[in-house]
Amino acid sequence: xxxSTPLSLLAVLxxxxxxxLLVFGGVRLGSEWVHGRRLARAVRPLGITxxxxxxxxxxQTVKRLSSVLDxxxxxxxxxxxxxSDAVRLRFIxxxxxxxxxxxxxxxxxxxxxxxxxxxxxxxMYFGYRYDNLLNIGMAIFTAAAAGYYFPDYxxxxxxxxxxxxxREVLPDxxxxxxxxxxxxxxxxxxxxxxxxxxxxxxQMVGEEFHLVTLEIRAGAxxxxxxxxxxxxxxxxxxSSFASMLVQADKFGTSIAExxxxxxxxxxxxxxQRAEELAAKIPTKMLLPLVLCIFPALMLVxxxxxxxxxxxxxxxx
Length: 316
Fold this sequence. Notes:
Blueprint (H helix, E strand, L loop, with lengths): L3 H40 L16 H14 L12 H8 L7 H27 L5 H50 L4 H11 L5 H15 L4 H12 L2 H16 L3 H61 L1
């Protein structure tokens, strides 16, 4: 047995422990999130807020995992004051509002950027006995770059998904607001009613507009609550919708008529987006048509003729 064999076994064991810790932590965090969502859905019809209940005591394993995540997050957390800048806004726009979201995010980023690339380098050097340090360095750099940008990609993916969901549901929501305002409800009451009704189509849109009603009840003001809504979702149509409501409230114009016009405009924009996507289909189909379908078609059409031609040439 050579001297590098124990080191290779130790490196493989370290990789196994790191992957096990990541899987266990992800499962624990996912189960806590699912249980929290179920509890919130169960107590919401009863008018009870889970925040008023006493939190359940955490186990020793969860406490140790929490301390490990705290230590890891300190390695990549930005400087002081980051909670009030664009980094915090990115979490909110992605729908992540928990107290431990930032800690978990930076802990995962530290593991993917520092720890896993280092373990990959150790395994490559001691486990597989790679002598080319350039290849090892390139592998470590590639893994670190991928681990650094992967959490950002997940945040962007969640944010874009929320934006698309709001873009699709917003015209229908405005139609419901028109019906409520024309039936005699005030705008605040209409938003509250619609936020409960739109949950059947989109849970996210219902929660966002329910937050608007909560901010208005807390005394933030309708214009401030609507601007915060547009800031949380980052959708241009929603920003114009919030500005329209603020201006209609400021100048005393008809809310129902303004909502009807806004709904027509958004439906026209949605139709234009659908037509734009339909117009791009021939261009997107050109590459797979040339690379995949056209060669197979030419093979089927010209294959028998080529075989007969080769047979005739051989007979001569």
